[in-house]
Design brief:
Length: about 140
């Protein structure tokens, strides 16, 4: 679909565009500490993997079948929580993600809810597993 000369694309901030087009986190982690999935009312689907060590979120990766807005939100979640404690990561909200992006369209706020919801599920999965490092099962016992 071509734009009419009188139409314009929505104005987005630089951070939104960086997050929307960033794809290096679109991968599964080979040994995630936790995994969470979420499907939006828009039918966007996201699966978030977290790597946590020593109570710190070391890496967030995801697999996505969705729009650029959801991709922007997933990357924003990763940017906002990597390097922080699990306790601090639980404080993340969809409103914080939207504020971080600065130009998430209001009618796509559900994309922030979708990404944060999947992230919460990944944290819950990590905690349900006993908050253990995946390598612990392979370490020799003393």
């Amino acid at each position: 679909m071509a734009l009419n000369a009188n139409e314009s694309l929505p104005a987005h901030t630089q951070i939104f565009l960086e997050m929307a087009f960033r794809t290096d986190r679109q991968k599964p982690l080979s040994h995630p500490s936790g995994v969470g999935q979420n499907v939006g009312t828009c039918r966007d689907r996201i699966e978030i993997h977290v790597a946590i060590s020593g109570g710190i979120v070391k890496e967030v990766a995801y697999q996505l079948d969705g729009c650029l807005n959801t991709n922007a939100c997933a990357n924003a979640v990763a940017e906002m929580v990597e390097g922080h404690t699990v306790a601090a990561a639980w404080a993340l909200t969809p409103h914080m993600v939207a504020e971080f992006l600065r130009s998430l369209p209001a009618d796509h706020f559900h994309c922030a809810e979708l990404a944060v919801g999947a992230f919460y599920k990944a944290l819950a999965d990590y905690q349900q597993k006993g908050a253990k490092d995946w390598k612990a099962a392979y370490r020799p016992s003393d």
